[in-house]
Model the fold of this input.
Amino acid sequence: MVPSARRGLRATRDNVRKYFGTDGIRGKANNGKLNADLAMRVGMAAGLMFQRGEHRHRVLIGKDTRLSGYLIENAMTAGFLSVGLDVFLVGPMPTPAVAMLTRSMRADLGVMISASHNAYEDNGIKLFGPDGYKLSDEIEIAIEELIDSDMSKRLAKSADVGRAKRIEGVHARYIEFAKRTLPRNLEFDGLRVVVDCANGAAYRVAPEALWELGADVIAVGVEPDGLNINKDCGSTSPEMLSRKVREMRADIGIALDGDADRLIIVDEKGHVVDGDQLMAVIAESFKEDGRLSRDGIVATVMSNLGLERYLQSQGLSLARTPVGDRYVLEHMREHGFNVGGEASGHIILSDHTTTGDGFVAALQIMAVVKRSGRPVSEVCRKFEPVAQVMRNVRYRSGKPLEAPAVVKTIDGATQKLNGSGRLVIRPSGTEPVIRVMAEGDDPVLIEQLVDDIAGAVADAAA
Done:
């Protein structure tokens, strides 16, 4: 099956906006796109958008461990207070914890200040509605219009300015929530676990939760200094975790990213297990337990063809969406799936969470390992991935994918694959880059097709 590259492109292009990308607002902090002025205006605009009814409105703000988090947190707080919302500050917390707490504390809006797996220089703003779900494209567009408008006439009266309060005890709430996703009688005694928290938002909650569940815990990436988030650690740099697992002779390694919404596993041999393999493990486990709501799961166009073939061998389907966990979740909600995710390790288990939760997904994997009594290298190797090659082609302006030579090259590549692989050609949602990906059974052919398409795109962009 070779999905239309241009159809995927059109879906992505329709969502291009001034401030919001595929996962909230993101950019270089302070002296880049995301400065204090924009953060304050986002607070004002989002606060006005979510004033619904006569009750006292409130917003919950969490963040990861970036130095710029202080700046953006205070700027957004000022914006919310200025339009009459009360602010609950919870400090460094995983993104899924902020989504959960937004619902639990009956807030009208949730905010996570994080650039996820990016380096500390970047930061971002993710917004959640009162139901704990990320906002729709339509609401984000409406917020953008407010950001660029004159909001001075809608400021709260002096007596109606909001109050800010720092909330204690939220870490224990999230830990209990995560533990409740497992059977009550399941413990991890006898499992030696290395957990890498990427010097990010989960540096307190993940090691403590694993310890409470009985595991022998070795925690790394738990000394944030504002500048070392994701630096040579976490799910995007698992090499350190692999070495530590081998050194400590651990049974499993868990790597989270800066805001703990994605997960990578390392087996007892130090080998990395990606999100596609983890989704296969969870899907099979849920099917055996009768917990799979549909006979299949949801992933993006970037998930490996090997995953799709494996699921088919188990009588399960793979529904594909554009890149971005928000699109995975939208499809899950619309069609009744309860397992979905991305190869990068965003895994959504909608029976428990409203967004990707790397730590909760890790607990489900550990539960399978514990019950099976087999090593992670056996449990988490469900299929052999097919060859997959990707190139990034940078461009300055225009629409290179619509150039006749590019269209002809893509059509020719599709014919050469002849059903034995897939092509995905799409613009990045965060930078002026065209991503060219192909996968299939013939590695030499795949390499050649990607070279041909990337070359045609580069020529058109020149």
In short: The mean pLDDT is 93. The first strand starts at residue 20 and ends at 21.
